[in-house]
Design a protein that fits this description.
The structure is a single chain. The chain has 322 residues and is mostly helical. It has a domain of 159 residues. The protein is 61% helix and 7% strand. The chain has 9 helices and 8 strands. The strands form 4 sheets. Strands 1-2 form a two-stranded antiparallel ribbon. Strand 3 and strand 4 form a beta hairpin. The longest helix has 56 residues. The two termini are 66 Å apart.
């Protein structure tokens, strides 16, 4: 989760229609209807004679009423269609609501940074964060890829490589620096694409690091370290972090195409993939404990301010006494 693939910021470094009511109405409609009154037709007088034994003194159109009532109870095809459409609409609204909630959480995550510089968009402090759709995973990948932070970090790493003359065949000068810069950002972009977007969508894993924030320091340390190989899934359960480890390896393998031929070996590819995973652990530790560092720094600053105010008050008191 917190590797180059789980966090773009740490390296260059998760959808009922019920038809029971309709079935109940259907069985109710199959019950016997009221019997019609017995009638005879007098062909000579062209009138209808109704048996007095069957009707009261003031006959009422019982048969028609019963038939009309039954017809009113029988659902029409349009009402059935409306009920089905209502259920589908409710399900769609629920999915839409979940999608909108995830969008709101992502917008909050896009404001997160360490030291005001290091982007931590792939981190959430909410243990019940809504799972992301595949579209949102790709958006998160793209947002972290175009942030100034990876470009800045790439430049620093490329400069270090230039000073150490890594991959000597690339040479020095602007040409050598450009090659190192391009390779470095290529490593980041490819690993981020596979680890945070493609593989997380295929394996239905959450690409974010779920910051613990509570508990003993050792538990939090192990939690952050384990995020490289253990992650939360879209169904809310936890399992192996296939996307992160697999993305690291895929990124290292693709990188062989633009690195010098001397590094195009299986051993070097595995070594690079494992190195990126280890760097992800370091990044996760920084993200996990950074709020603690900020709080400690603020407490020290507050203590210094309180001491200075106390000293100033004491000095003022002494001056008044004199």
């Amino acid at each position: 989760m917190a590797g180059k693939n789980r966090h773009g910021e740490c390296k260059l470094g998760h959808r009922c229609i019920a038809f029971g009511g309709l079935l109940a109405c259907w069985f109710a409609l199959t019950a016997d209807r009221p019997a019609l009154a017995q009638t005879t037709w007098d062909t000579t007088q062209n009138v209808v004679h109704t048996s007095n034994d069957d009707l009261p003194d003031a006959p009422q159109p019982r048969a028609e009423t019963g038939q009309s009532s039954s017809q009113s109870q029988q659902p029409s095809p349009s009402s059935q269609s409306s009920s089905s459409a209502t259920g589908t609409s409710q399900q769609t609204d629920a999915d839409k609501s979940q999608h909108e909630k995830a969008e709101e959480q992502l917008k909050q995550q896009e404001k997160q940074r360490v030291m005001g510089v290091m982007a931590t968009f792939n981190t959430t402090r909410n243990p019940d964060a809504v799972p992301l759709s595949s579209e949102q995973k790709f958006k998160l990948f793209f947002r972290s890829s175009i942030d100034p932070w990876p470009f800045l970090l790439t430049g620093v790493v490329a400069g270090i490589g230039q000073a150490e003359n890594s991959n000597p065949t690339w040479g020095q000068g602007m040409q050598g620096y450009g090659k190192r810069y391009g390779a470095g950002y290529g490593d980041y972009f490819i690993g981020n694409l596979f680890g945070n977007a493609i593989l997380t969508s295929l394996f239905r894993e959450d690409p974010r690091y779920f910051q613990k924030g509570t508990g003993s320091r050792m538990k939090r340390f192990l939690w952050a370290a384990g995020s490289t190989v253990w992650c939360k899934r879209d169904n809310g359960k936890w399992g192996p972090n296939y996307a992160n480890v697999g993305g690291n390896m895929i990124g290292a393998a693709i990188g062989r195409f633009y690195y010098p031929a001397s590094g195009r070996t299986v051993g070097q590819t595995i070594s690079d993939g494992l190195t990126v995973s280890a760097e992800g652990i370091v990044g996760a530790e920084v993200i996990e404990f950074w709020p603690d560092m900020v709080r400690a720094h603020r407490r020290r600053q507050a203590a210094k301010l309180a001491a200075a105010e106390k000293k100033a008050t004491e000095e003022g008191t002494k001056d008044k006494q004199k």
